[in-house]
Write a structure and sequence with these properties.
Blueprint: E1 3-11, H1 15-25, E2 31-34, E3 49-51, H2 52-58, E4 65-76, E5 82-91, H3 93-106, E6 110-112, E7 115-120, E8 126-130, E9 136-145, H4 152-156, E10 164-173, E11 180-185, E12 193-199, E13 202-208, H5 219-232, E14 242-249, E15 257-258, E16 261-263, H6 279-299, H7 306-333, H8 337-340
Parallel strand pairs: 1-2, 1-9, 2-6, 4-11, 9-16
Antiparallel strand pairs: 3-5, 4-5, 7-8, 8-9, 10-13, 10-14, 11-12, 12-13, 15-16
Amino acid sequence: MNVAAYDILVVGAGPAGTSAALAASRRGVRVLIVERRRAVGLPVRCAEYIPAMLRGQLGLDSGYVVQKVVGMRTFVAGQAVKETAAPGYVIRRDLFDQALADAAVQSGAELRCATRATAINTRGEVTLTPKEGPAFSVRPQVIIGADGPHSTVGSWVGAVNRGLIPGVQQTLPLVAPLTHTEIYFDPEITAGYGWLFPKGQLANVGLGMLPPTEGNLTIRRMLDRFVSRLSDQGKICGSAVGHAAGWIPVEPMRSALYGNILLVGAAAGHSHPITGAGVFAAVTCGRMAGEYAARAVAAGTLALLSSYDQEWQDLLGNTLALARKRREQMETHWSDFPSIVRRSWVAFREYYV
């Protein structure tokens, strides 16, 4: 079997992978992106909010933006509503992912969809298996694993996400436009929260929480109850026009570097353990990984890759460590809801004390 040589192989064409590919290809190295799905960005598994500063950093056409939001309202059972300034955008995540992928390709990266990275051998050759056609092998100098919370690349080096919680979501019509995202805490939403993110005439309504353990209750049934509650409050109406589900990493990796393999985004546990937010970290860490990978290739030394592990931890380490500590407290003491809830959410001063 002929083995194609690439400077960098990126596994996964989400925001982390395409940001890495874009940064690397701009430095003139040969990059291959493989994506197991047939189309980049589909199906969507995201609440679809991004902070305002991210849009400005990307420099992409803004066709993926659905609406602007000015803040966040936090609803806690039995307490007054907390309103916080949190400017950002609710987006079409599929269009966002596709815009990043297009930018990477325009910069010189090669993209193959419907193709899985299935194995790596002792010579560092990676077997790629398309859904149609024969498998083939590539020999990259650097591999960037951006293939989500159940990362195949991570499994090759024993770096498996140890903390994952489920998230489920429906997209429904809004009764009236909203300018704020809404967050809901309730004792029955165990160690997690519900959300309503306005998306023009629609809203993404979801739950991220520990799975229910009582009776026949499931997280999907919990979501149905939450949707009914918001419908009774006159915020949403009608039937769901979309569904999404996925796993949210809630424990960051201690290291995201393993020889010539870098992990980024959800594959490295870069999602925030409390909020579940991951797009900003995915784009930022992806860009870092791509730049250091390209520098290492150009210099002919993998030693430069260690700077990636140091830089992402310098930027996000303390934030993720505090969030992980709060999640551990949240899961352990949720039965004492009135005392623990304000230490469990970023909008409250108690979270930071």
